[in-house]
Amino acid sequence: MTSEAKAKALADLAAAHVGFKEAVRGIPEDKLVIPMHGEWSAKDLVAHISSWNEFTALDMRRLARGHVPCIAAFREADVNEWNAFLVRPRKLFPAGQVMAELEGCYDALAEALGAVPQAMFEPGHMVGNILLIVGGHYREHA
């Protein structure tokens, strides 16, 4: 994969991040905490995105070192358990902190991806698949 392809993958992720931020920008804090997606509020969805970005950033560092990522243990049947585990601590955070962490966790992911070798973006490597999922995740929850 060329450096342009890696740059495009990072740009696509950045665009998905910006689109998600646009979807939640301007929602008053008192409205952010009202359940609107089952039991989850908009604040919880933002925390959910941040949690997965933080988790994915750590896994990108593992992959860059040639190690097995935690996401390798993921099974679709367990998605609700993973989501509950990753979001649980952030449910306690005030809305302002959740919104600040949205940016910080994205930055950590982008930095980790920047360190991933270009070859790991080749088809058949986990990085490309993970980026497709992360981008879709942003759009799904926006």
Descriptive account of the structure:
- The protein has 142 residues and is mainly α.
- The longest helix has 23 residues.
- The protein has a two-stranded antiparallel sheet with strand order 1-2.
- It contains six helices and two strands.
- The model has no long low-confidence stretch (mean pLDDT 90).
- 66% of the residues lie in helices and 4% in strands.
Summarize, please.
This protein is mainly alpha-helical and about 140 residues long. It has helices at about 5-25, 30, 40-65, 80-85, 95-115, 125-140, and strands spanning about 35, 40. The longest helix has 23 residues, at about 40-65.
Query: Largest sheet at a glance?
Result: 2 strands, antiparallel
Total strand segments: 2
Rounded mean pLDDT score? 90
Annotation field: number of helices: 6
Output the strand order for the largest sheet. 1-2
Radius of gyration: 15 Å
Give me the secondary-structure topology:
Layout: H1 3-24, H2 29-32, E1 35-37, E2 40-41, H3 42-64, H4 79-87, H5 95-114, H6 126-141
Antiparallel strand pairs: 1-2
Keywords:
mainly alpha, globular, 142 residues
